[in-house]
Write a structure and sequence with these properties.
Layout (H helix, E strand, L loop, with lengths): L1 E3 L9 E3 L16 E2 H14 L3 H10 L26 H11 L3 E2 L1 H6 L2 H5 L3 H6 L2 E2 L3 E4 L4 E4 L2 H13 L17 H14 L7 H16 L11 H4 L3 E4 L3 H4 L4 H9 L4 E4 L5 H4 E3 L4 H6 L3 E2 L3 E3 L6 H21 L10 H5 L5 H8 L1 H6 L1 H4 L5 E2 L2
Amino acid sequence: MSEQSPSSSAGKLGVQVNEPESGPVFEPYESPAGGWGALRAVARALREQSVVLKGSEALLSMNQPDGFDCPGCAWPDPRHTSSFEFCENGAKAVSFELTKRRVTPEFFAAYTVGELEKQSDYWLEEQGRLTEPMRYNNATDRYEPISWEDAFAMIGAELRALESPDRADFYTSGRTSNEAAFLYQIFVRRFGTNNFPDCSNMCHEATSVGLPESIGIGKGTVVLEDFDQTDAIFVIGQNPGTNSPRMMTPLREASRRGVPIVAMNPLRERALERFAAPQDPIEMATFSSTPIASEYCQVRVGGDVAALKGVMKLVLEAHDAAVREGREPVLDLPFTPSSSKGRSPGRHRRCRDQDRCGRRREWRSGACCPARN
C-alpha cells in the first residue's frame, strides 16, 4: 500500500487501498495456525504502518506487569509472563494505534461524509489517526476542524443543559485501552451517572440476565489457572484462533499433557485442529505443530442444543449403569442440592423425552455431524 498524492488521477487525498471488487478472497491454507504465518502477518502490519521499531518496542511491553494491556481483547494475563505476551490480533491493534498515517483537515475537505460512508471499514482504518477535534457541518456534509477549547466548551454546554446526568449515554469503543477507559469512567461518574453502553453490552447483556438465573453469577466461573488442573476441555461455539488467540497457549499446553479437548463448532477452525507456537523454537525450526482438538464435532447451525442433549443422555445412562454395577458414580449427586435450588431439569426431561431421545431423532436429522480428527 502506498500513500496517494493530491495530484493523483483520483484527485483525492488519503491512502490508496487495494481491495478486491468482489469482496474478500478465500484461498486454501494448509499450514497450522500461528507459527511463521502469524509472525509474517505481524511484521507486515508493522511495516505497513511504518512503525517497525516503535511497534516492536511497544509489543515487548504489552501485557507485561510494568507495561500496558492489549486493546485487542480481555484475555487475562498469566502470573508468570513470557517475553511475548501478545497475539497477531493484538499486534495489529497496536500497529493501528501507533501508525504514522494521519487524517488531516485537508482529508475531510476532500471527502463528504456521504462519500466516506461508501468506503469499507478497512479503507477507513487504513487512512490513519485524527490530528485534532472535528465537528460535523450538516450544511456541507463534511467534518470541519475546531480547537480543543471549542470542543470542550461545546461538550460542556450540552452536558450542563441536561435536566439530569442520567439523560446522557457515554459510549466507548471496544478498542479503547484500559488506561483510557479508566480515566473516562472516573469523569463520567464524577458527572453523576454510570450510563456506559459499549460493545460489551451487545455481547454480555444476555449472559448478565440469563446466567444468574441458571448458575447464580452473570459471568463464567473458570479462571486461567483452571486450564492447568482440568481433566477435559470443551470448546463450544468459540473460535479462539480468531477471536482470542492467546487462549491457544493454554489449549496447546493442555493438549501436550494429554488432556482431551472436544470442539463443537459448525466452522472447522484451523487453530482448533493444529497450532504452532511462535515461542517454541523446536516447532518453529521444524515447521511442526501441536494437535489441539482430540474430538471435533461439526454441528450444523442451531444443532448445538440437540448435541448437548445427546451428551446429557449418555452421561445419565453412564451414571445409572455405574450405580447398578456398584462402581463409582459418574455424577456428584450430593453437589446438586447443596449448590443449587429447584429440581433437576436435566433428569426430568430425560424421563419425559426418553422415547424421543432413544430414537435419536435429532442426530438422524443431521443436527450434529461428529467427525474425529
